[in-house]
Structure prediction request, 79 residues.
Amino acid sequence: MSQTEQPDPQAANFGAYAALQDALRALIATHPNPDVLYRAMRHEYEHTTAFLLGSNMREQALKSYEHTWRALTEPLDER
Prediction:
């Protein structure tokens, strides 16, 4: 970063999010038992969705969660 360039926390967070999503997708895609993995993920999904519905940041949090869920479970849907 140059001395005149300002830090951008939102861009930094997005980069970290993208890297974590890539790593998780690779782990999901190569899991030895995708059916068991999907059931466990679905269980967690239901609990997290209920939690987010009860939170005060419901709309944006749910939208972001759904987007990430679809991106992460795509390898399971493609099998």
Remarks:
- The chain has three helices and no strands.
